[in-house]
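Methods — Computational structure assignment.
A single polypeptide chain was analysed. Its primary sequence is given first, followed by the predicted tertiary structure written as structure tokens.
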Amino acid sequence: MNPARLVSLTFDGTTLGHLEIVGPILRDLGLAGTFYARAENLLRAVRDWQEVAAGGFEIGDGCLSAAARPDGFVALSRDAIAGELQASADLLDHLFEGPRSFGFPWGMPSCEEGEYREIVTAAYSVARAGIEGHNTKTDTDFGYLRCIPCEGYSGSELVDLAENALAADEWILFAFDGIGEGEPSVDRGAFLALAEHLAQTGAPCATVIEGATLWRAAIAHVEAGPSG
């Protein structure tokens, strides 16, 4: 895989649609994916999600998504957020092996006592942010990786976003919620168009936790400069 440019596909909520629609598509096309877990959904289909993880997909921590408002505000204290993070980490450690990233809810990371971002970064060195943008080799915060919220985009628009980012040697993270169901959501055909394009063009696609390792290597290569 070429770490000079990168795509990551992320999905919030570990929903039934992610199991029945997204998982099979990614497996059939040989693409990586990161699923940010919401405990109440995860626990309804634990064995199915363990099979997903065994197939090489990342099950990340999305424990704050259920408590977040559309603007990202989480109606909890900082201590309560720390407790949620610990409980979620304990559950995921029990069910799955390997390192994982964290997925912030969409919006600014604020709570009843101000910003809570540093509580998350103390627990996770890699996290997908809830703000829009790409990640370049000169401007990447691994604890707050910018992403593209996919709600409302057509398939051709998603493909264009991917191609523009790859042409610019960037790391683009797509953030999906529902696929063909629920709110917010993306049309199933639009998601399939992006996935098929990535597979057909051999685009470098990695989970977020794997992508962080590749991107750090790419940054180090740039910083080292041309070899003599």
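Note: The longest helix spans residues 78-95.
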